């Protein structure tokens, strides 16, 4: 008898990686009622998720277990602005991570809970090698759009020269097989701003390059689960013929949003309850992007002057970064906050699901974009780095569910607050000819995505095919 299907889901310790990995873990359990899942991230992130070990849920029936691996920094790693320290961390993450995950796979087998499939998020190129050494098939879980996967693929296979030669010319148009013409400024910043060893995210660039080499070693073809759906990215998925790319998303929240951040106790849902439908501007820039004091003051002032109610997330660590002596000072504009509410962290999916929310001003992290789409909320995009610029391009040019605000060429967050208000107005207007188009498109995409995720929909079928292949020991 084949062993009980058991997925080991491995993820990099960032909120934007943990959230979709945990959602996939839940979805795997639902799609394969006989399967087990072990969810694993670094020791430090695990402790942040579950301050008391007893907090780690077991899925009710022992089918979901949370077991950490070591990145060599079990007592924590402080984010740094020093590129050398960042490179050292990534090197340790790779070496210690590979060792520790190998030990974890052995330990699970010794306990009579052998892993039958490793599923790993994008910054763990070694995970496939570890799995292969242990005789276990693996699948990459790509947590950015298929378009970004396709751009990276073509960059690493034949088109690096044209991008690198023109990387300082934002409007230069790059033509990649199967993709529409793309301006350099819309490509992932990892291939336009991190290819030189002196650049801050160079170690992320080399990690992604290694990932593509890892996929090459998979036979007959690498399996890649993509957190998108077929209907959203038809041509980009077709451009990925080299892999067995299965769109299985956008994986929806399961109600268990255990993560690295704690909820703000403020009564923001009750506050939303007091607002008319589609009236509130929700503003949040994810779990990592920073903001300086001037940008925040300017943004809040601009939102105030718009006269629209707004809910704005300013994370605790962002406030802590403000200049000495100002950390404890509330935003100056707070005294004048008549229309808005500022919180340190909210349940974003609940907020986006609230009928009062009419627009999302976002840095365009892929999770935020997908959550907005699932909830049918149009967006104003303030992309900063990595895939966010392409995500913003998808929002505005491909799906037409929002508008890109003018961004600065540098800065903690590339936010130019004064440009945001005009875009918010465009996105939120209703009625007149042409206006309200983003909102209508958002409602339509909400329906399409719900269908893809629903029983028999494209993403549902793909996930089931993946799970059934594991059940029967066949590679999909
Ligand atoms: N998020 C949240 N509450 C907040 C701000 C963000 O729950 O107040 C969540 C959001 O729902 C998303 C994640 O944090 O799932 C951010 O991921 P994303 O890919 O959008 O951006 P990243 O943090 O990776 O830059």
TrEMBL record:
- In this record, what's one Pfam family? UDPGT
User: Any keyword GTP-binding?
Assistant: no
- Superkingdom per UniProt: Eukaryota
Family annotation (Gene3D superfamilies)? Glycogen Phosphorylase B
* The UniProt record lists the keyword Disulfide bond: no
- Which EC class is this protein assigned? transferase
Q: Give GO terms: molecular function aspect only.
A: quercetin 3-O-glucosyltransferase activity; quercetin 7-O-glucosyltransferase activity
Q: Which UniProt keywords apply?
A: Glycosyltransferase, Transferase
Q: Which GO terms describe its cellular component?
A: cytoplasm
Cite the SUPFAM superfamilies for this sequence: UDP-Glycosyltransferase/glycogen phosphorylase
Q: Which InterPro entries match?
A: UDP_glucos_trans, UDP_glycos_trans_CS
Q: Give the EC number(s) listed in the UniProt record.
A: 2.4.1.-
**Would you identify the family this protein belongs to, as annotated?**
Belongs to the UDP-glycosyltransferase family.
> What protein name is recorded for this chain?
Glycosyltransferase
The scientific name of the source species is Triticum aestivum (Wheat)
Source lineage: Eukaryota, Viridiplantae, Streptophyta, Embryophyta, Tracheophyta
